[in-house]
């Protein structure tokens, strides 16, 4: 059984697909930087890492061989910390390429945005992706960007596209700079949608963009959810100050527990 069959209370997302050193000098991009960050964040209270990779030009990368290298290095450097890979498009990949990642790799967990995996409306291919992951014991965390997508997910479950053997969700509050700010009060609409669709038993977590990240994650933990924290979503501590590194962000959220 995968160590990510149940989400940890805190998962660190240290880099994401779109940010780099120009955004924050401590954002990890190389294999060595990612594993060193993982070690520090595990010590600070993170139970797992949501890891993005970069190519030689610093661009978002979906590559099974590169992920295998990271997973092997993590097993040596931080064996207590499982790796959740991403299938995010990141402006570079289409649904077929995203789905193909799990054909060549069996990670402990993967995240997948419903709107991306089903972006080409190929229900048969999407169903194979989700069911093959379930058969391999790879829990897929469904990334949802609006409360209305919970109804969409419920529809796909009813249609047999998405299995419910391990139903993990990630609610994304806010967007990168220029988008709507994150607001802890917005969580209520997500929880209401879960109830309306009969999915209150789902294993859910929340991430939040921008300076309100800590307040939003505190609301999620208070409501019985889990937290994904790190430089993928925010560089800021609760007091508005710039965080020194990902471990400092994890420490602030761990203190809430």
Task: Give an overview of the whole structure.
The protein is of the alpha/beta class and 257 residues long. The protein has one domain (10-254): Aldolase class I (TIM Barrel, Alpha-Beta Barrel), CATH 3.20.20. Helices cover 36% and strands 16% of the residues. It contains nine helices and ten strands. The chain has helices spanning 31-44, 64-77, 95-100, 114-117, 123-136, 148-158, 187-196, 213-222, 246-254; strands spanning 10-12, 48-51, 53-54, 60-61, 83-86, 109-113, 140-144, 168-173, 203-208, 226-229. The strands form two sheets. An eight-stranded parallel beta barrel has the order 1-2-5-6-7-8-9-10, surrounded by five helices. The chain is globular.
Name of the level-1 CATH class: Alpha Beta
Strand content: 15-25%
**Quaternary status:** single chain
Structural class: alpha/beta
Shape: globular
Domain count: 1
Order of helices and strands: EHEEEHEHEHHEHEHEHEH
Number of helices: 9
Side-by-side strand order of the widest sheet: 1-2-5-6-7-8-9-10
Mean pLDDT: 97
Distance between the termini: 26 Å
Low-confidence stretches: none
CATH superfamily name?
Aldolase class I
What is the helix fraction of residues, given as a range? Answer: 25-40%
CATH fold name, please?
TIM Barrel
CATH architecture: Alpha-Beta Barrel
Largest sheet: 8 strands, parallel, barrel
What is the radius of gyration computed over CA atoms, rounded to a whole number of angstroms?
17 Å
User: How many strands in all?
Assistant: 10
């Amino acid at each position: 059984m995968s160590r990510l069959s149940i989400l940890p209370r805190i998962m660190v997302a240290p880099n994401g697909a779109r940010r780099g050193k120009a955004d924050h000098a401590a954002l990890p991009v190389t294999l060595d930087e990612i594993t060193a960050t993982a070690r520090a964040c595990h010590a600070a209270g993170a139970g797992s890492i949501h890891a993005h990779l970069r190519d030689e030009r610093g661009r978002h990368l979906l590559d099974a061989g590169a992920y295998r290298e990271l997973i092997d290095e993590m097993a040596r450097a931080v064996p207590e910390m499982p790796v959740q890979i991403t299938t995010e498009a990141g402006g570079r990949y289409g649904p077929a390429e995203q789905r193909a990642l799990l054909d060549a790799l069996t990670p402990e967990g993967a995240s997948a945005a419903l709107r991306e995996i089903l972006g080409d409306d190929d229900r048969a291919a999407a169903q194979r992706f989700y069911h093959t992951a379930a058969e391999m014991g790879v829990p897929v965390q469904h990334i949802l960007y609006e409360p209305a997508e919970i109804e969409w997910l419920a529809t796909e479950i009813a249609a047999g596209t998405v299995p419910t053997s391990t139903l993990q969700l990630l609610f994304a509050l806010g967007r990168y700079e220029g988008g709507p700010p994150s607001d802890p009060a917005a969580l209520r609409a997500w929880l209401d949608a879960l109830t309306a669709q009969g999915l209150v038993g789902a294993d859910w977590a929340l991430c939040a963009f921008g300076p309100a990240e800590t307040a939003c994650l505190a609301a999620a933990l208070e409501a019985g959810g889990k937290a994904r924290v790190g430089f993928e979503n925010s560089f800021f501590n609760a007091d508005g100050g710039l965080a020194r590194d990902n471990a400092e962000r994890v420490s602030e959220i761990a203190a809430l527990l």
